[in-house]
Design brief:
It contains nine helices and eight strands. It is of the alpha/beta class. It has a single domain, classed as TIM Barrel.
Length: 279
């Protein structure tokens, strides 16, 4: 088993300006990042600030590997209302343009709304709306040189079922859209290894976090109930060669957050070393 790159989502500092956390992240030994799009962290509408962030990331020797698309109840690519879908598309395009300034590889997108209760009678039409928007948005990403990656969502949300994500992928006009496996979401949804197997044909990257199968705690790997040994063995069997991005909850103390991140990274590295030794 080769070493998978392990990066960190700046989302653990989502309420802090990105300019205040980049150097501490670098000093903690992380060099690959997923950039959080929360406005208080980095306002993707402010291209000047995005450009400054890109310059600082480069100066620190960091790589902006991926960019997490904005998500909220108001950004709904499945909505029956055309104006709502148009607004969502405009927000995604603006975020993708910011991602391009950061020179990321992948744009990670939740393919459904952050809504739990929606009429079941609307399911098919909403999924088709998502496909229509994603087909158009894909070409914007392609023009910007960014890969489009869809993330499996929490199971209580619309499009949060693995089968919905698979349906969307199958209905798209193109076949080079990837999947970001969110381990915490998948573990809450159903059998984690089954989710990995279902998504394996599209799996480009992983959001790594742990939980106790009660809520999406965003714990560092190894501090919850997920069987990481079994998961990593399965990813190895499937010849996964992407990056694992730690997506963990932040603490008010930045130092504690980064200690927890380093602990999660070490847990994954120890497992990788065990695999190499066994082989």
């Amino acid at each position: 088993m080769s070493d998978w790159a392990i990066g960190l989502s700046t989302g653990c500092f989502w309420q802090t300006s990105i300019f205040e956390c980049l150097e501490p992240i670098r000093n903690s030994g992380f060099d690959r990042l997923e950039i959080c799009s929360y406005p208080a962290h980095l306002n993707y509408h402010d291209k000047h600030s995005v450009g400054r962030a890109a310059e600082k990331i480069h100066a620190l020797g960091l790589e902006a590997y991926s960019f997490h698309a904005p998500f909220s109840e108001g950004i709904d690519i499945t909505s029956p209302d055309q104006s709502t879908r148009d607004f969502a598309m405009a927000e995604l395009i603006g975020a993708a343009e910011a991602a391009a300034l950061l020179q990321v590889r992948y744009f990670v997108l939740h393919p459904g709304p952050e809504k739990a209760i929606l009429p079941e009678s609307e399911r098919f039409f909403r999924l088709q709306n998502a496909v229509d928007v994603l087909n158009r948005f894909y070409h914007h990403c392609r023009r910007l040189g960014i890969g489009l990656v869809l993330e499996n969502m929490l199971p209580h949300l619309f499009a949060g079922r693995t089968r919905d994500l698979m349906w969307i992928l199958g209905a798209l006009d193109v076949d080079d859209v990837g999947v970001c496996l969110d381990t915490g979401h998948a573990y809450l949804a159903e059998d984690l290894l089954l989710v990995v197997h279902k998504l394996s044909g599209h799996l480009w990257m992983v959001h790594a976090s742990d939980n106790h199968r009660q809520r999406d705690d965003h714990l560092p790997p190894g501090t919850g109930a997920i069987d990481w040994t079994a998961l990593m063995a399965h990813l190895t069997k499937l010849h996964f060669n992407g990056t694992m991005i730690l997506e963990i909850a932040g603490d008010a103390d930045q130092t504690i957050t980064l200690e927890r991140a380093r602990g999660g990274r070490q847990h994954l590295r120890d497992l990788a070393h065990r695999f190499r030794t066994d082989r």
